[in-house]
Amino acid sequence: MRKGLFALAAVGLLATGSVAACGDDKGSDSGSGSGSSSAGKVGVILPDTKSSQRWGTDDPKFLKAAFEAAGVQVDIQNAQGDKTAFQTIADGMISSGVKVLMIVNLDSGTGKAVLEKAKKAGIATIDYDRLTLSGGADYYVSFDNVKVGELQGQGLVDCLTAKKYTKPVVAELNGSPTDNNATLFAQGYNSVLDPKYADGTFTKGPNQDVPDWDNAQAGTIFEQMLTSNKNIKGVLAANDGLGNAAISVLKKNKLNGQVPVTGQDATVQGLQNILAGDQCMTVYKAIKKEADAASELAIALAKGEKPTTATGTTKDPESGASVPSVLLTPVSITKESVKDVIADGFVTKDAVCTADFAKACTEAGIS
Ligand code: BGC
Q1: Given strand 232-237, what is the order of strands in its sheet?
Q2: Ligand 1 atom 6: the closest Cα is on which residue?
Q3: How many angstroms does the Cα of residue 164 sit away from the middle of ligand 1?
């Protein structure tokens, strides 16, 4: 599959070779040359660089590559967690004449304001990764986010079962309450955990949302959880950043490794925590596929075409609208499968298998 995608990208590069080669490459903030003659410019706004490694590293890299391969000009900017900046960036992109605007909202309110402005200006819109509630985007590209949560819930069940604890207390660190994905993740993991609480296999412990997926706040929240409930035996953390915050607190209390913690995003840190035995699992979402799917739509829209690559629809739970969608499949990763994430080219062996993790890497079959 990956080979296929690379081959496709290579063909795209050949077809627009001269344009891409002559492009003034000013980094991720700039376009790739003058673009193919018939296509307009695409604007992409990413949310922050702190809530997950992906927004500063993976998404911009894969998106830039996809647009460059097609010779379509792209302006990728990051709002750094600032909602005012998010809107200012959008205003700038709209007045600069982008033909397509792709956003990862910081919350549905500001996302919606931006999408509406874009629509008024005749710009096609794509919700990337996060659905903007009542936003009315033309397309939505993401993963099956309920499935992400189910994998996290099942991962925790498997790790806790292996520990053979009796009625272990499970704490839940949810994502940002303003991120529709966090709602979907929770829907997924609670569909697995609630029956376990109900039949007495597990004990329901503290459960809290982490505003803006803020890792530092997650640490404070988890510290309080552990202080008031010393018996916590498992942590459902909604992504690797929140998981690492919990692991840091567990380390301080010499409980790391005894209390399974979940995650998401297959970040370098998350994978290392798994190799060290401090994290139970993560969820790998192939960002390259997500970026490729979204840019394929955006490129068609930039050329004035009506893309047909969206294979399904997502119902906006607020407005009831059906949004044409591409939803990809997430994969659960444990110690045994860390090597698959490396084999897929998402992270390098060098990044994961640093000196501290060399032995664990060998044991996990990473060569
Ligand atoms: C994304 C996750 C990410 C989280 C925090 C979610 O909307 O789907 O991949 O970890 O936001 O940035």
Answers
A1: 203-209, 169-174, 232-237
A2: 181
A3: 31
Residues 297, 353 within the same domain: no
Query: Residues 298, 215: one domain?
Result: no
d(CA 321, CA 318): 8
Domain range enclosing 128: 3-142+286-328
88 and 137 both lie in a single domain? yes
Per the document, the length of the chain is: 367
Look up tokens 């953390």; give the residue. Answer: 237
d(CA 121, CA 161): 55
Distance (angstroms) between ligand 1 centre and the Cα of 58 equals 12
pLDDT in tens, 144-181: 999 999 999 999 999 999 999 999 999 999 999 999 99
State the distance from the centre of ligand 1 to the C-alpha of 52, rounded, in angstroms. Answer: 7
Same domain? 197 vs 53: no
Which of 127, 143, 179, 283, when mutated, tests ligand 1's pocket best, judged by the most ligand atoms within 8 Å of its CB? 179
Mean pLDDT of the chain: 91
- CA of 15 relative to ligand 1 center, distance in Å: 34
Check whether residue 151 and residue 112 sit in a common domain: no
Tell me, using a 6 A CB cutoff, whether residue 140 lines ligand 1.
Answer: no
Number of structural domains (the chain) is 2
Model confidence pLDDT, tens digit, residues 233-292: 999 999 999 999 999 999 999 999 999 999 999 999 999 999 999 999 999 999 999 999
pTM greater than the 0.85 cutoff: yes
